[in-house]
């Protein structure tokens, strides 16, 4: 499940970047803010996935 979650997070970040750029181009601060929010949410989720991976690696290393 980790791979799909990471892929979804990266997709959300990229979608946010696109919205942010479209908002700047259209001079629409609301669209730009929505894109920034999507980008940040994807980044936070990505950090959570990295923390889960780190915890999983720690558990694996202490079992041996």
UniProtKB/TrEMBL annotation:
A matching Pfam family: CsbD
Signal peptide: none
Residue ranges with Basic and acidic residues bias: 17-40, 50-64
Domain CsbD-like: 5-56
Region named Disordered: 1-64
Family affiliation: Belongs to the UPF0337 (CsbD) family.
Protein name: CsbD family protein
Species assigned in the record: Actinomadura gamaensis
Lineage of source species: Bacteria, Bacillati, Actinomycetota, Actinomycetes, Streptosporangiales
